[in-house]
């Protein structure tokens, strides 16, 4: 399996926090609620727009740096899931 590295991200940024969180759960779908709690705390239900912007930044990093990974979104029974999956 090829290594996934995001060297261009600033330490402590929301993008870095989200990437680290998703890398720990590589090849698994994670509920959006869990991502919101990890990034913004337990009372973060109104931060969906901010999460969408951070996810877009992660996708841009993957594309720009030609990472062997893909960011997936799926919706099951009105619950949205996101996951970072290895292409290798």
Give me the secondary-structure topology.
Elements: H1 14-24, E1 30-31, H2 32-40, H3 48-64, E2 69-76, E3 79-86
Antiparallel strand pairs: 1-3, 2-3
Helix pairs in contact: 1-3
Key traits:
42% helix, globular, single chain, alpha+beta, Aspartate Aminotransferase, domain 1, 3-stranded antiparallel beta sheet
| Count of all domains | 1
CATH architecture: Alpha-Beta Complex
Distance between the termini: 5 Å
Largest sheet: 3 strands, antiparallel
Q: And the CATH topology?
A: Aspartate Aminotransferase, domain 1
Uncertain residue ranges? none
Report the portion of residues in β strands.
Answer: 15-25%
Q: Return the structural class.
A: alpha+beta
What is the count of DSSP helices, taking H or I runs of 4+ residues? Answer: 3
| Widest β-sheet, arrangement of strands | 1-3-2
Estimate the helix proportion, in percent: 40-55%
């Amino acid at each position: 399996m090829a290594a996934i590295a995001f060297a261009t991200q600033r330490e402590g940024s929301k993008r870095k926090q989200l990437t680290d969180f998703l890398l720990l759960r590589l090849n698994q779908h994670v509920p959006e609620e869990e991502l919101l709690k990890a990034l913004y705390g337990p009372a973060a239900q109104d931060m969906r727009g901010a999460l969408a912007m951070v996810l877009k930044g992660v996708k841009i990093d993957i594309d720009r740096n030609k990472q062997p990974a893909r960011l997936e979104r799926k919706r099951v029974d009105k619950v949205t899931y996101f996951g970072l999956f290895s292409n290798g």
